[in-house]
Specification:
Oligomer: single chain
Strand order of the largest sheet: 1-2-3-5-6-4-7
Radius of gyration: 20 Å
Order of helices and strands: HEHEEHEEEEH
Low-confidence stretches: 14-23
Mean pLDDT: 81
Largest sheet: 7 strands, mixed
Helix content: 25-40%
Amino acid sequence: MRALLILLGLVLMVAFEEACLGARFEYGTNVTSQPEWPAELNKLVNHPARYAGYSMLGHSEFSYRGEVKILNELLAIYGGVPLPELIVYLTPEFETDHPLQLQVLNRAKQVRAYVTVSIGSMAKLEELKIPKSVSVEAIPPAGVRVKPNGEVDDAEQKRVMGEIEAFVKQRRRAEKG
């Protein structure tokens, strides 16, 4: 009886591990889509500038490479995606080869899509053309020490973060009229 319980436990453990591994799908540059995604989102997800992507348990993330011209093309497509909330998060990042990240969330048949653009060596803030249909937010860089008051310790990233915050404030003023 004990051996049977151990065997049953091993079978269940292997089945659970396979189910968890099967929940993550690597896309790389393969074409992908979900039935809930609007056509414009599928166009963005499958843009030729994408070089990596994965989905796991209702969360998909895609990475894109390209110069500012490509980033602006991606942002224009994103601005046309018919979802209730479109947000571009701007963050200082100097050591990246993928200046644009797209996150798509599928939860209870609701789809949300958010874009993060790394401002720094590949993408300059003054060269970006962010559509008016898109809200803009500033977020601190990942992997850099942030003081309790939200300030970034690194001087160059702090300078760029200041530019991003000023850009966001100016855009909000313009939106209000």
